[in-house]
Molybdopterin biosynthesis protein CNX1
Amino acid sequence: MYRMVSIAEAQETVLKAISPLPSVSLGLSDAVGYILGEDVIAREPLPPFPASIKDGYAVVSADGPGDYDVAFEALAGTAAGHLKAGTVAYITTGAPLPEGADAVVQIENTEKLPPGSDGQQRVRIVKPAKGPGDDVRATGSDIASGEVVLAKGSRIGAAEIGLLATVGAATVQVWRKARVAVLSTGDELVEPDCAQLGPGQIRDANRFMLAAAARSAGCEAVDLGIARDDPAQVEAKFQEAIAQGVDVLLTSGGVSVGDRDFIKPILERQGTVHFGKVCMKPGKPLTFATLNGDAGSSGRGLVVFGLPGNPVSSIVTFNLVVLPALRAMAGWAEPRLRRVHARMQMAIKLDPERPETGESAGELAAVSTGGQISSRLLSMRSANALLELPAAQGLLPAGSLVSALLIDDLGAMTVPEEIPLVVPTL
Ligand SMILES: Nc1nc2c(c(=O)[nH]1)N[C@H]1C(S)=C(S)[C@@H](COP(=O)(O)OP(=O)(O)OC[C@H]3O[C@@H](n4cnc5c(N)ncnc54)[C@H](O)[C@@H]3O)O[C@H]1N2
Ligand code: MOO
């Protein structure tokens, strides 16, 4: 019999038992979504030279307004020329400021004059530069040489890829992501392409759902298929996971207390079961174990999550416990789900015994996805948050402010036309 642990204790136990996977070197274009395993330092200043902020004329600011010869053109991508006082140079945005010049006057503040008889281009500076440095980016004003542009532990998104490219970090050290094997167990399961279900059969939903969830976390998913309710078959699949050198094994089904539930006894024989019962609904039989030895692609053992067979229990426990573990392995400093406030738009019945995790959709106004039953995958459809509801009798009234754990990027959320600016009165 297992002691019933709280969700927080289960999460803490898992995060204590695992550590980040070894770092790997990745090409810049492949690094999006990874966590940086090193500080990235700028070797040169940016801009590497004083650069024009505008299309206009490079000037000696002390020359002031007046009519000038355009001595030459300073174009982006060319070496800076030398400007003599009393003349100006045509300059494009991003071009190096010519030596001798100290400011730029934008085109809008000038008037082109007819060329001289010798063809000399001339311009009138109508509104002169305010002083040295006007409309010029000084060397290193965006990024100083030696500056840490990205610290170890940063998450690499599109802007960070841009920064890496800017400073010439063509390859970077990042924490590797886990290889995750997915195994379904149960005599009743058939493949999704089964057109005609036999007696007692259902299609395997969990394997595909969990593999997709692992891939969404950036992990490689390894499909171990279905094991029948037979300890020898389940053990053979465990050996296959070890042989394939995966880091994490996700099983679903067979973790409850029936005499056909073989996952816990096998894990007890092969490794250490850290918990086998969690005080939550859905997901009570969630089991977490580590297998010793040289399993896992980094030779540091295999991490096994025995997820409940009910599909909703499976995906909810994945989000609450497995996902933080995959993130921690990938080097996330704060791997847990983001917790926000949501206001209930409707009353919700509470469970008297187990704190409940329900699903909500929409804005940070929580609307139930309907009947919350662990077998009913429709209760997860389009859900973008899991509400953390206490174990209690009765109804939670509409208007209650509840805790919500975000499980997606809210990309499907309706977008208000505008959000009013609220300025605090001081
Ligand atoms: N006597 C008790 N029985 C049960 C308890 C309990 O405390 N005492 N807990 C219940 C809870 S809570 C859950 S959750 C389930 C979990 O059971 P298992 O993990 O052993 O899962 P199975 O019995 O194998 O399956 C449960 C349910 O889910 C369906 N299933 C299984 N795998 C898949 C799959 N890959 N795709 C789609 N559906 C799947 C399976 O057919 C069952 O209907 O135990 C309760 N029992
Ligand atoms: O814990 Mo079970 O997941 O309620 O059905």
Observations:
- The mean pLDDT is 94.
